[in-house]
Write a structure and sequence with these properties.
- With 518 residues, the protein is an alpha/beta fold.
- It has 17 helices and 15 strands.
- It has helices at 27-32, 47-61, 81-99, 118-129, 146-160, 212-226, 232-242, 246-260, 270-283, 286-293, 298-309, 318-327, 344-361, 378-398, 406-419, 462-474, 496-499; strands at residues 36-40, 65-70, 134-139, 170-175, 183-186, 189-191, 201-206, 330-332, 339-341, 424-429, 436-442, 445-454, 481-488, 501-506, 512-517.
- It has a 6-stranded mixed sheet with strand order 10-11-12-13-15-14, with helices on both faces.
- The protein starts with 26 loop residues before the first helix and ends with a strand.
């Protein structure tokens, strides 16, 4: 029986999957035109599955000898192109034997091919001896860097003019980024910035996410095989949570059918998708963990930090914005064009990862905010937080890498401890909104929290914050408790322990809320 795949390429024998070739139908035309091109997309959206499937189809049809080959083994030698060439060609010989008939595979390597020309020599010989036009898809190109990357690209460019008799008929570079963003250490830059030394590309194509209809098609395959139905609401919610990101689409369904609702006689509902979401967020499987690791990179931090705070990112280079887009961490809102976190699942994962180090550094917190029956008492929670902030806020702030949003991260780490006792924390934030909204739900109690920062040279944000809190509370459960937390980051302020205080205020809509000055 097939299953939802979340590890490695998909195959139709084992996995539920959509037709990958239909996701980029223009590839065949490019190949027929002898094109050299680029396919780039974030990790785990289906690039390898697509190119493996297309290569197999092209070869089976009998016109081409097509194969997907990886460059990743060369990444161990990014400053030694000579050793990288040897490693790459060794891996190519193995893979060509696996995926191609013997008469079409990579021939024996020339023993005395000069360093810096081994790939050029091998591909020239392969194209000359292969009885069919040779089509190569080179995966993991952006795992290469520095001298090794430049050497590989230059050899491909040099051989391009000899195609198709003495070099591959068509060739694609497959990776997360376009050519201009490949990493090199030369000329004071860490990226190529232009297509050179691969200015022979005809097109750069991006593999997109699933549409809602495609999510429905994928889930129906499970229904066809097992009889277990995903309701229309469940499918729509899965799409909303993931924005169609293929790994997440599969992961949500996999958790539902293999962990939460194993009885195929039971229907998968919207509530099941919601429960699966939290399983993924709290477990942080490999895909989510690898994305979170990118948060350490300065180019990522320079965009994500102001996004979390609701600020504008400032004058970031276009390449940096494109880089974070290519990683799949953010997207442009299809209606407004504004950058936002790519999907609601990532929106929860990112701040949790950033607050993880602070959580580890927190002292033991007794749940004094609960009454004798285990119910949350907002007044006790507020009192506990104020005491915690006065005692531990200053030293914890100094240890946060994202110093621009350090107060947000410390507060979120604190709320995570509250959540671990049986609550649920969700967040909303966006570039230019000037705030972060945090919602704590614990049993039947809901606390809506508006986070604002008072920065140097700006006016007191309380009035604006009360308006924003009013709008936020209007979308929460009736009777939700409201806090406006203002972090004062201006220079020359008294110590945190002295300036932290709380008082009552009234929103423009007449709601009584608590303002926290910290």
């Amino acid at each position: 029986m097939r299953y939802f795949n979340t590890a490695g390429p998909c195959n139709a024998q084992d996995h539920y999957m959509l037709s990958p070739v239909e996701r980029l139908p223009e590839l065949r035309r490019l190949i027929d035109q002898k094109a050299y091109f680029v396919v780039h997309a974030p990790r785990q959206v289906g690039k390898t599955t697509l190119m493996l499937t297309l290569a197999r189809q092209l070869t089976e049809e009998g016109r081409y000898a097509a194969v997907l080959l990886s460059l990743e083994v060369g990444a161990a030698f990014n400053t030694d192109p000579d050793r990288a060439e040897v490693a790459i060609l060794g891996a190519w010989q193995v893979d060509s034997r696996v995926w191609l008939p013997p008469a079409l595979g990579l021939p024996a390597l020339e023993a005395n091919a000069p360093a810096g020309q081994r790939l050029l020599s091998a591909l020239t010989t392969w194209a000359q001896t292969c009885p069919r036009p040779l089509v190569l898809f080179l995966d993991e190109i952006d795992s290469l860097e520095n001298e090794t990357l430049v050497s590989v690209l230059r050899q491909l460019r040099h051989g391009y003019r000899n195609r198709p008799q003495a070099f591959p008929w068509s060739l694609a570079l497959i990776g997360m980024r376009d050519v201009r963003d490949y990493k090199v250490a030369a000329g004071g830059s860490d990226r190529l910035h232009t297509a050179s030394p691969f200015n022979i590309k005809m097109r750069s194509l991006t593999l997109g996410n699933f549409t809602q209809d495609e999510v429905a098609q994928l889930y129906r395959q499970h229904t066809t095989e097992t009889g277990q139905v995903f309701t229309d609401e469940a499918v729509a919610y899965a799409y909303d949570l993931t924005a169609g990101q293929p790994w997440l689409v599969n992961a949500l369904a996999k958790v539902c059918v293999e962990e939460l609702v194993e009885d195929t006689g039971q229907t998968i509902t919207r509530d099941d998708i919601e429960a699966a979401k939290w399983v993924l967020i709290e477990r942080q499987d490999t895909h989510l963990d690898s994305l979170a690791e990118r948060l350490r990179e300065p180019r990522v931090r320079n965009l994500i930090a102001p996004m979390l705070a609701g600020d504008l990112p400032g004058d970031l280079p276009d390449d940096d914005r494109r880089y974070v887009l290519d990683l799949g961490l953010v997207r442009r809102n299809p209606d407004t064009g504004v950058l936002e976190v790519a999907n609601p699942v990532y929106r929860e994962v990112l701040p949790r990862v950033l607050s993880g180090g602070v959580q580890d550094a927190l002292p033991r917190l007794e749940p004094v905010w609960l009454d004798g029956e285990g119910r949350l008492v907002p007044e006790k929670l507020l009192e506990a937080f104020l005491g915690f902030w006065r005692q531990h806020g200053e030293p914890l702030l100094r240890g946060v890498a994202y110093h621009e949003i350090a107060p947000h991260i410390v507060l979120m780490a604190y709320l995570q401890r509250v959540e671990n006792g049986g609550g649920r924390v969700t967040r909303e934030y966006a570039i230019g909104s000037g705030r972060m909204d945090v919602c704590l739900r614990y049993g039947g109690v809901t606390v809506g929290i508006e986070l604002k920062v008072w920065r140097e040279g700006a006016g007191d944000p309380e009035a604006e914050g009360l308006e924003q809190l009013e709008r936020y509370l209007a979308g929460l459960a009736a009777g939700a408790v409201g806090w406006l937390v203002i972090f004062d980051r201006r220079a020359g302020q008294p110590p945190v322990a002295e300036r932290t205080r709380a008082y009552r205020a009234v929103t423009p809509g007449g709601r009584t809320v608590t303002v926290v000055r910290a």
